[in-house]
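Morning - zinc ion inputs below, output right after.
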Amino acid sequence: MAQTSDAGHADLTGDNLLREQVAACTLLLNDLKIMAYSGHVSARLPGRDAYLIQPFDQPRSGLRPEHLLICDYDGKVISGPSNVRAPAEVYLHGEILRSRPDVNAIAHFHHDITNVFTLVEDTPLLPLKNHAVRWASGIPVHADPSHVANSELGRAVAKTLGPHHAMQIRAHGQIITAESVPALLVDSVHFVENGEAMYHAAAIGRVKALTDADMAAFQRDFKRVPHVSKLWRYYVEGGVKSGLLPKDWVLE
Ligand SMILES: [Zn+2]
């Protein structure tokens, strides 16, 4: 287990790559205006019933690897800087990671345009853009807009998510799940791109969702691993050039 530490990289155990990826993903999502003053990224620690997540009140714009806490599936902080508590909604991360062994990284954010589709009748968020095939199985909407502030609420959210890769919480926000932190960033970007595209499309006419045939055609030639790698490098390189990300972080 990683030891409690208030210091930087030097005292961390073998989780440096994951810590730097979580911090970079958070900084990039914040810079892209997908995440803001609230929201969080988590990443499962390999081989452990535990995950990295940022502290409750750490500004997303200044997150560093050493700020990250290690929590268990019950939302309890098991390692991290002293006197720091987990986010109020830590339970959604723990309960989804507990129930979905295929998920290794989760983002929760509160993107307003994307969430608009939970505020109206008869206009659900649909896959419109090609990369939205990721959500071909569906984008469930959790009816309870509450903060996911205890284990029971976390289990209810995990039940609504079911086997899907993204969901919305009505009048609240989004949850994206992926197999890795780089994939999580890419999926979050595509999810919001799709939401914004549908918002604009619906303003000028009747929207046309991707059909099953459209999605099958796109999937035939689409390779997720190189796509994730290409976009992760694109955003990381941009972040390093702008000074958002330190040059010495190891991110892949
Ligand atoms: Zn929330």
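Note: The chain has seven helices and eight strands.

O.
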